[in-house]
Amino acid sequence: MKYRKLGWSDLHVSEISLGSWLTYGVGVEADAARACLDRAFELGINFIDTANIYGRGAAETFLGEALAARPRDSYILATKLFFPMTERDRGLSAAQVEKQLDASLKRLRTDFVDLYQCHRYDDQTPLEETMRALTRAVESGKARYIGFSEWPADKIRAALDIPGVARFASSQPQYSLLWRDPEREVIPLCAANGISQIVWSPLGQGVLTGKYRPDAPPPAGSRATSEEMGGWMDRLLARPVLEAVERLKPLAAEAGLSLAQFALAWVLREPNVASAIIGASRPSQVEENAAASGAEVDPALFEEAERIVAEAR
Question: How does pLDDT run across 37-86, given as a tens digit for each residue?
Fold first, then answer.
């Protein structure tokens, strides 16, 4: 496993990290989830990402129990806030930052998180209020560093312009061969300001594993067949997309990689990406994805992959 520095911070995170959206505490049984977590640590993955909204606290509760016996300095833990936890508890107000951070720490059974992230931008709260509250979280020792997820470039710039507040170290956007929007503004802006990307859905909700075929129904037990986990996949399951993914398989084979490894290596070719978050329901998936770290691929293969995907749009 290779490691990269997270922005301007002193954190060095594994190139492949383990996420818990739609999986741990929700869609995956506890024993299987624990097996995935154990295998991740064995393979050198040191970065675990979660959020309060995942299972309305269930993912954090699972991680708190599963991590309890491990030395706190042996892993890097990130969580988030923004989405509604109750009818009244949502957003990035000062009161919510304090309340939700304390609740997350209790569920996670820890005194601090290494990274506390704003899960989305809050148009209902003044940005300065949010940034001051996040600064207090850092000053209190409850959060070592702060980050954001899916913020537009103009809001990132506005936060950077506020004097005397904690600095963001990370950005968490969706990014993959099938979704390259961050390349336009977010990645250049972050790279210029010491902010790294921690990308989610680098495998396009599993589509870039190649398991979904243009002329076949989704495999039994796959994310696309799950009522809890398949609701975000319509665009990715469009026939032109699946046909393009089929055309990527020979490129991955030429690189000596599985398609999933090839897709992860493509994401990691970007220097501003510190880590790619994977989801896993089986330890074998963790093993396959972790093997993408450090993969060396001919840039010409990546260029051809980009051309194929662009034609499908």
Answer: 999 999 999 999 999 999 999 999 999 999 999 999 999 999 999 999 99
Cα distance between residue 88 and residue 95, in whole Å: 12
Given 3-state DSSP classes, what are the helix, strand and coil percentages for the chain, each rounded to the nearest 5?
40, 15, 40
- Reduced 3-state DSSP string for 83-128: CCCCCCCCCCCHHHHHHHHHHHHHHHCCCCEEEEEECCCCCCCCHH
Superfamily of 3-205+268-294 according to CATH = NADP-dependent oxidoreductase domain (3.20.20.100)
Q: Which residues are catalytic?
A: 54
Structural contact between residues 85 and 52, judged by C-beta atoms closer than 8 angstroms: yes
Only one residue has tokens 């030395």, namely 71
Instruction: Extract the tokens encoding 200.
Output: 């989610």
pTM: 0.93
